[in-house]
Each structure stands twice: as structure tokens, then as C-alpha cells.
Structure of Ribose-phosphate pyrophosphokinase:
Amino acid sequence: MNFKKNILFSGNSNIKLVNKIIKKLKIKLGKINVSKFLDGEIMIKIKESVRNKNVFIIQSICNPINDNLIEMIIMVDAIKRAYSKNIIGIIPYYGYSRQDRKIGYSRIPISAKLIASILEISGLNHVVILDLHSEQIQGFFNIPIENIYTYNIFYKNIKKKKLYNPIIVSPDVGSIKRSRKLSKKINCDLAIIDKYRIKNNLSNALNLIGNVINRDCIITDDIIDTGGTIINTVNMLKKNGALRIICYCTHGVLSNNAIEKINNSKLDELIITDTIPFKNNFKNKKIKQLSCYNLIINFIKKYNK
């Protein structure tokens, strides 16, 4: 691949994923120095020329979410001021995406829109995000944006499994479109969990639409945070006669004691991607990770044509 007119930089949020990408592309990572002043301010120094080049920046807006966001926008500003041609922000996980509308309260922000504005103002010309929480977030940007879906990664993994009379399960109404795409790909039925949210990070499953008796269930969602939604879904499926239950989630936020809760639950397997770093160890018996690096590589190659 000819990368002479392009250069790729990375923030500190997801070095492992970036290393997979540069190894596959057979390119070197752009030289950059990221440091902090004693008061915590971030300082960026670009160590090589970006003049008249297309610059790719890979950075997940994940925990520590605010540090990673600030690091990215300062990096973009530094590159913009160094006479780059275009700056393309590749954001595997778009933090604040769940704050995409006002629900129930009149005095709350629409943070997903605010972050979009901040990224634009910093100097990005193009944004790429993997599996956005809601498609309307694309309308928050005034620059080109691509939402790359991950269901093909999950589909390939599902095809390797020996499943008995499988059915795709959407854990809530908001995930129906995502779940339907996968069910059509696999050519199987779709079930839906009807639920209401008690408060942030807590949900209560109410009603199951569909028949899961003596069937292997595949739950699909974009984000797993505390695990409350998924565990409630698993419990409801088991009560309704489900056999094996596997969950596919793009973004493994896994806050607080989510890993412990998942390992102690009736869920058979949780499969996430590496949009967010995940340190697997022997204690994580049920959690496995698939890589999304090929999706990002395909975009970079397409942009480079």
C-alpha cells in the first residue's frame, strides 16, 4: 500500500488495536510526543512533517474518557496548524453517545451533539465511528461521517458455532434494527425484550416478544456497561425456556463489577470487540474478544484510492 501522501497517528486510548492496524498495513506510526504538565494539562508535539498530507488519527473516546477526548482534540489542533491537507478522525468508540437526546428531564445536555461540535471545531475534516449508539448522531456532524457496522465480524464468529435452532434477541426496542440485520444475515427468527429503564445503568426487563423455548439465543447490542440490561435479558430468556445464551456487544465498557456479574450470571458467553481495550485473564471465563482492525484497515485503503 502506497502511504506516502498519508500518515497515521495514535492517541493513548487503544495502542493494542493501532499496533494490529500498522502491522497489517506494513506502515510506521507517525511520531508524536504526548506529555502532561504537573497540573495535568496535556501537551502534544508532532515530531514529523504533516504538510499537505492526509492525516489519520485513531483514538477511542473511552475511559479515562475526558483525558482521551482532550488528547484527541489537542492532537487535531496541532496537526491542523502544521498545514495538513485533511484530518480524518477514526473513533472506534464514541464516548458520550448515550446522551443523544433529552428524555424525562428538561435541564440536561445533549452531550453527543456537543462532542460532535468540539471535534469539528478542533479541525477534523472527516469522522469514522464504529457502531454508533444511535444513527441520528450522524446528523450532529456538519462534516462527512461514516458509521461502520460490526455485525459482519459477529456473523463470521456465529457461523463457526454449532447452535441449536438459533434466534436473535434484541435486548430493547432501540437495538431492533441492529438485531434484525444480523437475523436476516443468519436467516433466523428475531425476539425482542420490552423493558423500561428505572434509572441510569439499571433496567428491568418486562416482556418477551417471541418464542425461545429449547432454542439457543444470540443477544446483540452495541454497548455493555454495568451488564444490568444483558443480565436481566438472560434471566428472562432462561425463565422462558432458552438453552444456550451468547451475547455479542461491540463496545465492552464493562464498568465497576460488570465482569464479576457476567461471570456469575447464566450467560454462557460474552463476545466483545477491541474498540475499547480489555485486559483478559483467567478470571474472565465467559468473555472473549474479536478484533475490528480489518474494518478500519478497509476504510483507510478505500480513502487512499
Remarks:
- The two ends are 10 Å apart (CA to CA).
- Residues 6-148+294-304 form a domain with the Rossmann fold fold (CATH 3.40.50.2020).
- The CA atoms of residues 219 and 247 lie 4 Å apart.
- The first strand starts at residue 6 and ends at 10.
